[in-house]
Amino acid sequence: MDEPSHFITICSDSLGDTAEAVVQAVLHQFENQRVTIKRYGNVRHEDELRKLLEEAARHNGFVAYTLVQPELRETIREEAVRLDLRIVDIMGPMMQAFIDTFNDAPRERPGLLHQLDENYFRRIEAIEFTVASDDGRDLGAMLKADIVLLGMSRTSKTPLSIFLAHRGKKVVNYPIVPEISPPGQLFKLPSQRMIGLTMEPEHMLKIRSERLKVLGLPVDSQYASLGRIKEEIKYAEALFQRIGCPVIDITDKAIEETAGLIMGYI
């Protein structure tokens, strides 16, 4: 098997979620790049840090890090010079801006973001709720949801739902199909709690065709025909208008961008 063309190491004295989220957001801006991401969390000792940096240097990649302990921050800077390794400080510039602007000092304790506080448990509850309600499996959950996502097949309903759940929102997503009458719950909800998702027909055609290829199914099925897709979009948009909910065209939008728009509406 060919070696990946790019290697990125994520290093953190906590979980590394923050650094990986930034790396993933950047990767969305680059097409056709084969990238291996290796994440090291809970790095608390200088020897451990030196070892992972040496591995990163062997792969000719770079390191994205979130380290708050001063000794580890100093070590990674020294080792980067020694190994001729590029490092990216995810949190440092923001912390320095906070210090300079507000004349305050950081607590320098790793893992504060992930303490088991009320927000943490709210996120866990939202994720469990959202997973259990995926793809319209629990219609009754619509009345308890913070957000209800509506859209035809392949409009990123599930990944969007999970992304929003990680931000503490209970989400139900429901697939819109012309042959199935919409559930009565949709007409009992405030329209501002519902979001319609749509996409340009040609873009949808490409996505569905690729999906059928991955599944080993014929690409000339009705599911991936332009006529069928236009019919579904027309039906969905008529339903969105009837409900009176906001509609987002997700064509060429990253999950993070669409989620930001949804949070703005909600």
UniProtKB/TrEMBL annotation:
InterPro entries: Kinase-pyrophosphorylase, PPDK_reg. It comes from the Bacteria. ADP binds at G151, M152, S153, R154, T155, S156, K157, T158. Keywords: Kinase, Nucleotide-binding, Serine/threonine-protein kinase, Transferase. It catalyses: N(tele)-phospho-L-histidyl/L-threonyl-[pyruvate, phosphate dikinase] + ADP = N(tele)-phospho-L-histidyl/O-phospho-L-threonyl-[pyruvate, phosphate dikinase] + AMP + H(+); N(tele)-phospho-L-histidyl/O-phospho-L-threonyl-[pyruvate, phosphate dikinase] + phosphate + H(+) = N(tele)-phospho-L-histidyl/L-threonyl-[pyruvate, phosphate dikinase] + diphosphate. Its EC number is 2.7.11.32, 2.7.4.27. It is an enzyme of class 2 (transferase). Belongs to the pyruvate, phosphate/water dikinase regulatory protein family. PDRP subfamily. Bifunctional serine/threonine kinase and phosphorylase involved in the regulation of the pyruvate, phosphate dikinase (PPDK) by catalyzing its phosphorylation/dephosphorylation. PANTHER family: PYRUVATE, PHOSPHATE DIKINASE REGULATORY PROTEIN 1, CHLOROPLASTIC. NCBIfam families: PRK05339.1 (NF003742). This is Putative pyruvate, phosphate dikinase regulatory protein.
